Amino acid sequence: MIQQPVESSGRSFTSDEISLIRQTTRTFSSLSLTELSRTLCELLEWKRPNGKLKWEECRALLERLNADGIISIPKLRSAGSPGPRKVNTSAHVESEAPVTGSAGQFEPLTLQLVQASNRELTSIFKQLIERWHYLGHKIPFGAHARYIVSSEKLPGRYLACLQFSSPAWKMAQRDAWIGWSAEERKRNLQFIVSNSRFLIPPYVSVRGLASKILSLAAQRLPEDWERLYGYRPLLLETLVERARYKGTAYKAANWIQLGCTTGRGRMDRDHVLDGKSVKDVYVYPLCRHAQEKLRSAKPPVFVDNESSEAFV
């Protein structure tokens, strides 16, 4: 029997809610993991401010509870060979002619939101990230927004990719800068968005391009995020691996450097990787008095038009 609340994605689940999850997974064992996640979101009223189900976060919780032996979840239905899905790289992505010059020569720049309905653009985004970003392509967890950057002066060419997704649950430098309590962080973490991928392919060597794109993204993202998820973020954050990059573009775009991580990561419980992957922490306020607002803001609320009930 679970006595202590279970924390996941900024929400505490009581022992009664864990019991409901256990009972539901037994009762609906024939459902796929995605279907089960959606069902539980409805039962637990676990939704985003715009009313959409947090099924991806719920799925992660189910996988965690399953690994801990608390519940038993359906086995993944095979849709092909086992292992991570491979991103096939096309010749279009592999063999690009060099792009050189300065950012002003390619203005105006266009940041196009990559949506699942646009399969061609989604495919190109995945290919570029998989081919050229050192972390490769991974399906973003939870709320996210992806952009691909182009210039009307180079039709059919792509200059950069950006991905924004859920923030780190804890980050000492960021949390100290905000000055919030554990309860305030738990309540308002969703107002922070992480720039989890930023790629300019190696065939693009344009002076000032990276900082220009970061500035445009900071202007564009809040409106898109509000339209997608029902609320406006207050702060952007990112981690820059010190051994690979100097963070020049973020500094030029007026991001604030807060310090660096220990280089361990959350999976290094035995301290065997100390200092081997040190990352510089940068933040970018999206409004005035962002620190104060992150401490005092109330969680975004949406209204269910059919029942007129408000949910957090």
Structure description:
This protein has 312 residues and is α+β, with helices and mostly antiparallel strands. The protein folds into two domains: 53 residues, no CATH class; 211 residues, Gcn5-related N-acetyltransferase (GNAT) (Aminopeptidase). Helices cover 33% and strands 20% of the residues. The protein is built from ten helices and 13 strands. The strands form four sheets. Strands 4-5-6-7-9-11-10 form a seven-stranded mixed beta sheet, sandwiched between helices. A two-stranded antiparallel ribbon has the order 1-2. Strands 3-8 form a two-stranded parallel sheet. The longest helix is centred in the C-terminal third of the chain and has 21 residues. It starts with 5 loop residues before the first strand and ends with a strand.
List the helices and strands and how they pair.
Blueprint: E1 6-8, E2 11-13, H1 15-27, H2 33-44, H3 55-67, H4 91-94, E3 99-102, E4 109-113, H5 119-132, E5 145-151, E6 160-165, H6 172-178, H7 182-188, E7 192-199, E8 204-207, H8 209-229, E9 235-241, H9 248-252, E10 256-260, E11 279-285, H10 290-296, E12 302-303, E13 310-311
Instruction: Give me the strand/helix succession.
Output: EEHHHHEEHEEHHEEHEHEEHEE
CATH homologous superfamily descriptor of the largest domain: Gcn5-related N-acetyltransferase (GNAT)
Tally the helices: what do you get? 10
Largest sheet: 7 strands, mixed
- Coarse shape: globular
Number of domains: 2
- The termini sit apart by 27 Å
> Under CATH, the topology of the largest domain is which?
Aminopeptidase
Q: Provide the helix percentage.
A: 25-40%
The amount of beta strand, in percent, is: 15-25%
Give the integer mean of the pLDDT values. 84
Low-confidence stretches: 77-85, 266-274, 303-312
How many strand elements? 13
